[in-house]
What we know:
Blueprint: H1 5-14, H2 19-35, H3 45-57, H4 62-79, H5 88-93, H6 102-115, H7 120-137, H8 147-159, H9 165-183, H10 208-216, H11 220-232, H12 236-240, E1 247-248, E2 253-256, E3 265-268
Amino acid sequence: MTHERADLKDFFNTQGISPQKTTYYIGWLDQFFQFYNGSIDEVSNGDVIAFNNFLFQKGMAEWQIMQAREAVFLYIEKFLKKKILFSEPDKERSDSGHIQTWTEAKEIFINRMRLRHYAYNTEKTYREWIRRFLLYTRVESPRTATPGHVKRFLTYLAVERKVSSSTQNQALNALLFLYREVLGIEFGDFRNTIRAKQSKHIPVVLSKEEIKILFRHLSGIHLLMLKLIYAGGIRLTECVRLRVKDLDFDNQALIIRSGKGDKDRTTLFPEFLHPPLKPT
């Protein structure tokens, strides 16, 4: 890597990686480029999988391997703005008949999600739904997976687990991605599948007095963060990713970069929050 480590630390911070973890992410990049000797323009998902296997053989835990994979993908695709290529062997394996095990399917699933720039939180949520799906259906291998398994699982969620409509839809989206993008299987007609009922609850909204009471129980940086979240209508992850250049004092606006759906947007930045955030 020819880039200054300070630049990489700033970059990983903008991607929601805590300052305490950035050292580990940079360390994974060092290990990857010791392992991979080719051109940065020719890195393929097969190279990343080979690196993951190398770490596995060294006895690394799964969370460490996932962290290393994330570091490589973020560095190449977000920092360098380059594309990780699909290797030919992986294209052959993308047909469900060539995927022999769920471990292989998991590798391809993760790569496809990251090459399509899904948020890491979405990836973790989808992986958890697939884990639950396999525990419930006991499908032995990708070759024996059918749309019927998905229908039974969705019915189970609605009838036995009594999940909300949004939760069932989240599970469906995860399995749609697995079947279409990895296994190459189309669902077909799902009109007869039992769907969870949409909730009709009135949302709970705190009053102004209740918000003031909540504020009185916080101080320092935590109070400032909560005020930003409340006044700007932003998510916690969006708040921790804010940088100085994202604070537009003149227009009283916060610039939210790479929010949900990897989209940028602006939101309110009230004047009473300017003093504690203005650079000295």
